Amino acid sequence: MRALLSTVLICLTFNAICQTQFERVYTSPSTDDECQQVLSTNDGGYILLGNSIIDSSSSNWNNIYLVKVNMMGDTLWTQTYGNDSLKRGFSIEQTEDDGFIIVGITQNLGGVNSDVFLFRTDSSGDVLWFKTYGGSDNDFGYALQICSDSGYIVTGATSSFGAGSQDVYLIRTDKIGDTLWTNAFGGSGVEVGLSVRQTLDGGFIIAGATMSFGAGS
Question: Are 169 and 193 in contact (CB under 8 A)?
Answer without folding.
Answer: yes
